[in-house]
Amino acid sequence: MSDSSPVNPYPILRAAHLTKRVESGERSLTILSDLALEVFPGESLAILGQSGAGKSTLLGLLAGLDAPSAGELELFGEPLGDLDEDGRAALRAGRVGFVFQNFQLLPTLTALENVLLPLELAPDGDAEAKARDWLGRVGLGERLDHLPKQLSGGEQQRVALARAFVTGAELVFADEPTGNLDPATGERIIDSLFALNREAGTTLVLVTHDRALARRCDRCLSLADGRLAAIVPEEVGA
Amino acid sequence: MTGPRSQRLRHAVRLSWKGLGRDLRAGDVRALFVALVLAVAAATMIGFFLDRLERGLTRQAGQLLGGDIVLEQSRPFDAALRGALEDAGLTLSDQVDMVSMVSHGDAFQPVSVKAVDDAYPHYGVSRVDRGTGPEALASGPARGTAWVAPRLALLLDLGVGDRLRLGRAELEVSGVIEREADPSAGFGSFNPRLMVHVDDLDATGLIQPGSRIEYEILAAGSPAAVEAVTSRLERLRDEGVEVRDVRRDRPRLGSALSRADRYLSLAGLAAVLLAGVAVAMATRRYVERHLDTAALLRCFGARQADLVRLFALQLLWLSLAAAALGALLGLAGQALLLGLLGSLVTVELPPPGLMPLALGVLTALAVLAGFAGPTLLRLRRVSALKVLRRELDPLPASAWWVVGVAGLVFGALLWLYSGDLVLAVSLLLGGGLALAILWGLGGLLLSALLALCARLPRRGGSGPLQALRLGGRQLARRRAASLGQLLAFSVALFAMAMIALVRGDLLDAWRDQLPQDTPNQFAINIQPAERDAFADALNEAAEARSALYPMVRGRLTAIDGRPPREAVPAEARGDNALRRELNLTWRADLPEGNRLVAGEWFEDAGGATREGDRASPVPISVESGLAERLGLGLGDLLTFSVGSATVDGRIASLRELDWDSFRPNFYVIFPPGVLERFGHSYITAFHLAADDRDTLRRLVREFPGVTLLDVEAILERVREVLAKVTRAVELVLGLVLLAGVSVLYAALTASLPVRAHEAGLLRVFGAGDRLLSRVQGAEYALLGLASGLLAAALTELAAAGLYGGWLDLAPRWHPWLWIALPLGGALLVGVIGQWLSRGIRRRAPAESLGLLGET
After folding, report:
1. Is B528 helix (H, G, I), strand (E, B) or coil?
2. Chain B interface with A: residues with Cβ < 8 Å
3. Is residue B369 located within the same domain as residue B450?
4. pLDDT digits over B628-670, tens only?
5. CA distance B854 to chain A (A)
6. ipTM > 0.90 (yes/no)
7. Pair (B388, B482) in one structural domain
């Protein structure tokens, strides 16, 4: 999906006047201020920002993991402001995938069991076959029974990729997916991520400070001082 | 609606089952499982053991009476009653008791005749010398023969093979009875025993209208069979039949059993409490580890209710599996206990019942809900955002909330086990208060110790002082966790100390109760003229003796002018005190072993009533138990018929006395100057060495009119029972100590990841094996020392409350606790901690530093 123009005119994710403030004693700190954003099905969007810019906070809000202080947010056409935490969770179920910087694999579960985890929330007779299939796609078909500590960092992140896509998610959020990996491994992970994204026709929203990674996305936004600004991916510096 | 919902539930069950299987790989789940297994094993093992032992011992105590139930009346029992008892599953044995005269040649002697049937005895054996030395016989004399007591043989110069005459029948002496299978039977009779077969009674012609004969049915059967006739027994009591059973009529054995019962229950509770603390410690780690799982599941779309259901089901399977395994271990454990007791448990024990099993399962669920519940609820509050920001852990459950819920559940278990709500509530309140004090004191103590360590000189090297200083600093660095461990260890050491302490004091009390010189002989019918000479003879020969008490037989004929059976509560109408003559005595001062509980002892009352002024009743003192049973109080007027005269007494005081003392005890005591005018004799009790037959013979020879009763057999039986219970108590103590060690193990295991991280850091900074070992050792020892000090304080407080309130023991101070517990605590925590940490010390720093957040 290299074309930047949306195929579907209805955004899968829409934010308007999105603001996030945190109270610290008597002081109020504004992390995100009056943001507007639309993400369309099938596109990949990078949100670029320095450490502490509020990227993860924004990702949390967009995924409905947190509630904004003000503003409107729609996910799959549903206003998140009308939903409580359980409602937002139900909206994510099976439709949203996540990739985290620190992989977030459960240490006592094998690779296969980690991938199975999101499938197990609802009855699914083919769950195990799906999980095996996705682990095969990320090249870990032979490492199904390995515990995370028996896998390298890159392999762990590949397990996390399989877990993000296994449910057939429409939208995948990635938070600094290469942040804990060396550049060469990070590169291979990014290749896998985009390959899977293309293959599944998934919408991808990732936050990163890695400009090389951002350049590979259809669209790029820069987050600074709590505000978003559009930048052309090709113009993102090294 | 039912379809999708039940589908969701089935899915949740499958998921939780699968999750549990995966979770068993984690150390904390294994620790949780082990703690739960231990709680159930302890509860069921003690439950099974106690249940069986108590039923078995009760049955053995039944041997003293001759049956589980003994019915007695002055006319033969009808067939309908027999039928009802047999239908309930009881086996019956008939017995007839009477006083008669027996002759041999020209010599005559009043005897206490016991006629028994072929079913005699229900329990135990008699020791009878049939001419070839004493042997154990599980039967009575055959038809046409008689067994005689050694005293009767002595008085009538009888031997095996001689013939004696009882009424119109002539019987052959076939044995001399050393010990009857049911030794307490006939205890009230002062004449020597003659035992015959019941079928021979007709031939004697002694059963005539007006004869004083007591007919007895001795019934034996299962507790269920006894229970089945309970209401019938109550009706029989109302009809005036004397009904006896073990607990009601043998306070001697009853009180010992009841204390042992309470002790074992207490030990069971202590084990459950300890396992609960272990569960609480393991749960903290379990929850910490599952916060990530919960956050991830929230990310993937799980609702709070899904999380609650998932974890609740997982833990339910865990506790059910633990309950099943614990119950099996409990069952095996009680069999092992009984095996270890070996020949001590000679009684035939009934098979294990289902109740202890149900209690065990209930205990597992209650312990999990109470000790782990509040901590587990933290999982429900996990925010999905934690996957992005690790610091967003939900706040830990308030310690007071955790302790409060655990306390309530433990209180409910306490109530369930003790059956005493007031005790449960007061122990709970006391425990809560003690814990609050402990918390404060623990904080202060920890601060003081750490401040002390910080002041230690900073010298190089890895000397003990350096280790102590560093160990103290490690503890200070995670003060909250250290305080938590301190409290957990204190509670564990407290529970262990408490059970050990109570066991010691309980055994002491039992020993005190039956010292070596406990009277084993009673002398009655001592005439006033013989009194001084008899006392002199005893002073010379006996190892110990009680005072000589004058005794007058009198029947209670009126209470406040009304017939006694009308004046007393309905349930007391069959009371022995109303049916029989009571032994009355007089005395100027309170007898030894008696304690006034109400009113005042009479002062110079004798002078006022010396003339026997019938119009003004004399003050009397009544035993408090009798007063309670008959509904009597201070000021009530009791009328006694003594011989052909009547004596009125107004209750001036109530006394508690020790029925277990094997000394002469009296329900009613008059002041001097009232009863002297009636014919009276004296009674005393004394101790003779078991093999001192010469003294007995001399007393019989010199005082032929005095009746000597040998109660050594009863005493021996009581000692035997206490010895068994003592062994059980000691074994249960071992179990509690094991549970205590498991808490230390669980708590230390739970803290290992943090300690591994710290050890890894110290290693990075250049600490060697030796220093690490010393620092960790110092840390554990400091924790153990402080815990021991706190536990000593808690034990003293709790013991003082428990002794008076539950175990009926006098409170005492235990100085050794203050030395043994801190030192023992330091040693125990130090050794277990060092042992558990040996793996940490072997790890490379990189591995240790990566441990946090994993298994």
Report:
1. helix
2. 7-8, 10-11, 15, 18, 22-23, 25-26, 289, 292-293, 296-306, 383-385, 387-390, 853-855
3. no
4. 888 888 899 999 988 778 899 999 999 988 766 677 888 899 9
5. 6
6. no
7. no
